[in-house]
Amino acid sequence: MSASLPGRFDHPSWLTAVGTLVAYGIILLLLTVVLFVVPYLVFLVL
Questions:
Q1: From residue 7, how far is each of 4, 13, 15 by CA, in Å?
Q2: What's the total number of domains in the chain?
Q3: For the segment 3-44, what is each residue's pLDDT rounded down to a tens digit?
């Protein structure tokens, strides 16, 4: 997978770093939903 990136950013470690940050953000979002939004909705219904 080759994107048109400047020469400084075409190393595979940059892709790994971006992938790690994106995955970390998704996990944080899911945990936030599970720990705060779901209980809020449960108590809202009760």
A1: 9, 13, 13
A2: 1
A3: 676 777 788 999 999 999 999 999 999 999 999 999 999 999
- For residue 27, the Cα-to-chain-centroid distance in whole angstroms is 6
pTM for the model stands at 0.70
Amino acid at residue number 28: L
Distance CA 22, CA 38 (A): 23
Q: State whether residue 13 is helix, strand or coil.
A: helix
In a domain, 22, yes or no: yes
How far apart CA 12 and CA 40 sit, in angstroms, is: 41
Domain of 29, in residue numbers: 13-45
